[in-house]
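Co-fold these.
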Amino acid sequence: MTVTRPCPEFETLLLDRAAGSFAAAAAARLEAHLAGCEACRAEAAALQAALAAASLPPPSEAEQRALDRAQVATLRHWRGAEGSRRNRSLLQGFSAGFAVAAAAAVLVIAPGAYRRAQQAEPQQAEAGAAPDNAGAAATVPDNAHASTAAAYPGPEPGRVAGWEPDLEAAWEAAALAVGEAPGDEESDLAWAGAADFTDLTDE
Amino acid sequence: MNEPHDRGRSPHLAVLLGGAAGRSDEALVGAFLAGEEAAFAELWRRHSPAAHAAVRRFARTPEDGADLVQRAFLRALEAARRSARLPLRGPFPFRPFILRVALNLAKNHARDEARWRRAPVEAVDGDGLTATSGDGASPAAEASLLRAERDELVRAAVRGLPRRQREVLTLRVDAGLSFADVAQALGIAEGNARVCFHHAARRLRAALAPREDEP
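Predicted complex below.
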């Protein structure tokens, strides 16, 4: 076996040549060298043969037919998936709308529930209103005492300060509004209003 | 970034063909997502050959290979659809993406296949594509038999390459990608892709060395 080593300084160029990708100047230099160096010529041929053997033949007819079928199938799959995506987003839109409607319903029902609760226990309210509290915050959860009083003044505005809302009633109303059975511990109310109510109940 | 993918066809011809053929991948993907089916046909024409080349070595049957291409396309389209909904998005790199997905799918596919057929059909081996030159009974076929034997040697060497080198080799030699495109598809530097190719070529060449005395 007479395997002579190629010239070391041309080894990388030979590999680039085999890859079929190198700069024109380098190509000219290498070709000039190959004309006079048998070892490098042999190496170039060996690399070319190895890569040719390693590369796959062009797709067979059977492969091409399978690919053509796959093109049709891909489009069909995509359309099918698109249909179910549309249905899903319709459903999502519908449930989002429903949640908004439920929240609105709670806003309407809750004051009524509160009033009923207050009429049931009028003695709980204390005298000595704090009028400067009344206009403080606009959100329900944190400053519930002040802001709810501002938003839903009871029959006697002067006696509002120490009220306790009937959270059970409001909670049940909220649960009914979103279609959950009242008292269902595991019910997953994903809208913000429900979270606020649970926070209050925990206190 | 992803312009020069219309390989093998002159830009003039592409323009003459009009419609889908002259447009960028990004425009085509956008048009397809908006419901234009001709855009899909053009995307398929541009990218399915390279995606197929990326998976063929791992596919046992023609259907296997086509199925992997189909899955790669669906994933790439889905990813493009998601990315189109993001507020601050760059152009979606459809071709690099689909090639990367195809390579990954093929790799997983080969692993699953190996798991399934380890026991019964081990003797068959090969990549399912070598069987074409199998009828060498006549003496005239002696030379081609020898060559088939040598080819099998090299293919075994390909299968024995480290994964990255094999991927570079496949994308360069089978899919015909430029090193820049190979690097983009694999998420590596172009120089790195070249080095991987050099290593792979040297190893394949070494697999042939014992028979070097032949012309």
